[in-house]
Amino acid sequence: MIGTGILKGMAVTARNFVGSYFDKERLITVQYPEERDPLPENYRNFPFLVYDGDDPQAGLRCVACKICEKECPPQCIYIVKSEDKKPDYMGKPQFYPKIFDIDISVCMSCQICVEVCPFEAIKMDKEFELSRRERFDALLMRKNDLAKSNDYYRRISPTDAAEVDAKLTAAAEAAAKKKAAAPAAKSPTPPTSPAPTGAAS
Amino acid sequence: MPRGHDRMERRASRPSNESSIKARPCNHLPVADSDVAQRRGYNKRMTTAIETVEAMERPPVSMGSRLEGELLEVSMGPQHPSTHGVFRMNVALEGEIVRKLKPVFGYLHRNHEKIGENASYLASMPYTDRLDYFCSMTNNWAYALSVEKLAGIEVPERAEYLRVILAELTRLQNHASLLGFLLNDMGAWGTPLMYAFREREKILDLFESLSGSRMMCDYMRFGGCRVDTSPEWLARAKKIVDVFPRFVEELGQLIVGNEVVIARTQGVGKVSSGLAVSAGITGPMLRACGVNYDLRKVDGYGFYPRFKFRIPLGEHGDTYDRLMMRVLEMRESVEILKQAFDQIPAGPIVNPKVRIRAFRPPVGEAYGRIEAPKGELGFYLISDGGTNPYRYRVRPPSFINLTILEDMCLGHTVADVMVILGSIDIVMGEVDR
Amino acid sequence: MESLEQIKAQIEAAVPGARIDLVPNGSPSQQQSLQINNEHAREIATFLRDDPALRLDFCSNVTGVDWLDRVVKKTEKVKKVVDGEQKEVTETTEEKIPGYLEAVYHLYSMAHKQGPIIIRMRTADRAENACLPSLTPVWRSAEFQEREIFDLYGVQFEGHPDLRRILMWDEFEDHPMRKDYREPDDYEYEPTPHDDVLEKAKRHYASRPRSDGAEGITSQQ
Fold first, then answer.
1. DSSP-assigned letter for residue B323
2. How remote is the C-alpha of B346 from its chain's centroid?
3. Most confident of A159-168, B71-80, B162-171
4. Which of B364, B376, B395 is the closest to C27 by Cβ?
5. Domains contained in chain B, number
6. B213, A44: Cβ pair inside 8 Å?
7. C33: which strand partners?
8. Which of A19, A119, C123, C197 could form a disulfide with A26 if both were Cys (CB 3.0 to 4.6 A apart)?
9. What is the extent of the structural domain holding B264?
10. Strands C33-36 and A47-51
11. Predicted model pTM
């Protein structure tokens, strides 16, 4: 009989409609912003700078090596190195960024900056409700907007933060061990050549 | 009877001061000599009330009085809900029949190839996501494959299996959205589209928990993949794939026997296999014409030779066959996925010899291609030994599949043009790059 | 699939007068190409498509490449007479290669499932003589791609059924993919330009009045 195909199609629609009252899988609307789906841990949006401890100035991990600026595909990072140095988490004096700007109207959240950073200083944030009223000034995130503490990073990405912490503490311990071993090696024999000192980070 | 017709009749019979207004002569109306046009009254153009009155008082135009050379040039798009992006077609219509069709595009041209020349090899990877923005995983794979061919990089086993899994998941969600969009264009007002998107959301959630982003995944790297999957992810993916055939059957019920779909798609937009091969058509569109050419079998890239799957082929090359191609390919993708989930080994995810920064392939060139859901996606790279490619070219399947749009649409009505365009499966990000 | 030398020999046998060179490819991809001369290009293409052994009926990819004037340094050992003795001396020769535009065709066979055979055609120079014969009458898939090469590189294809701009609008004047293309200075600069983009942005804003919040192009702390 003509129309059976259409009736079968209508049966599919009816099944989905009625089923959405009973089956959770068929009711797919999430009433945002009252209901929110939980974000997966790997979700990435724009980057942020990690600092250890409480003081963003003193604890910032970034050493202004400019690798992320170079590798960024749309070139949205702008870094100006400082003239002086400050000690990093291992006590070694490093440069720090005087200016660190990310233009999030240009950033495409590709996380290549995170991948190439050798110091675990820049990580991906999960904030996506970032609407602003102006296009340029308001979407330019400067260093104090970008600096967020390591506790924040542990909250948003527990497994990644745990890995990073483990790596950094292992590196710090290895450096400390090497430093402790070097003066011990110095004392028995008079130094004929300058003994290796300092952390090989 | 369309609703406006009654309104016009009532307005015509209303007493008004029409006698004081000189009615303009309407001898520029397009005349159609098909009986469809006669029945629908295309010789009555309802623009202003006066013209309408004038038109309705004229006797109906007979078949003999045909105005020579009076084709109506219409621009369909670029802002159009059914043209799959900013796509414009200049059609010359004789009534409702298409006599000439010229596609115009370039509205989304971002000169991706020049960006590729100015960016390093790694930096081009996120840009490839944005080519065919529905299928970012396969775009990434095609680019990674080309660079691996250029530099002679080997890929570990687990990475190849992951690539196959993600590519087939991409194919599933691409074909589902295509069917949803096509039914939407045919007038199903979004319901099948929402069913397709419901399934697509499950797959996109998988991509999000793996690579961090639903659509712009930036997942493949030269020599492997970026992030390893956890066993929970594989279990979740397996569950989704096990449930997917139910959706394919539901969609089949909506399409396969449906009289409206059959009437609108069978015999519409026929392509002969000779024309398809000559025009460089690839993908499901080519296989709908009966040509057995699927790069997964022909080239055997990745680990596709290890999986048992069939290639569906069509007979007539019309829109209905192209639709059915996608339905059948979804079933085959589910088969491949099931086998891949069983066979995936443990191991490293990326070749450790490949540098991420300052990656310099040897001087030379390479062309790598894969079977993307839309056709053959290829990347042609010429390297001069530096960190940036000398020439970076994308071979876009949607762009080349559009070559025969005019041939397919000639002689059909305007409504059929939308259906044909929907069945070619174009994405403007790829057409324009 | 026969080797490229054999195919070259077959083409030379079938199309008399054709000059074909093998272009080597140093990368591990092993994809060598044949450079064909422009006068016989269409006959060579027809032969490649119709030959029963090759049946290269699928032209997969047509690419344009822009080569600027190059200086190629070649070092080779040459036997020369120096101070009355025959010695092997390394000589560096500098070869000036003038620039040209190139069209590269990747050909596959759907009938025999083989390929790729890559052929290249070079123009005489990058200015007035940038024209090539169109292979659209042989493979229809070249139609849009040759139009794109015309649009983005400026290569005129003779015999193309409909040669006009495809991605840029019709009134546009330059050819964007050329290596010496200068972008028009008509866009907004984002707040984080650096290196040469910063110079361009400074010059741009020096000549224009301030507007719309983008004037602070260098970030101040």
1. H
2. 36
3. B162-171
4. B364
5. 3
6. yes
7. C23, C118
8. A19
9. 112-432
10. unpaired
11. 0.84
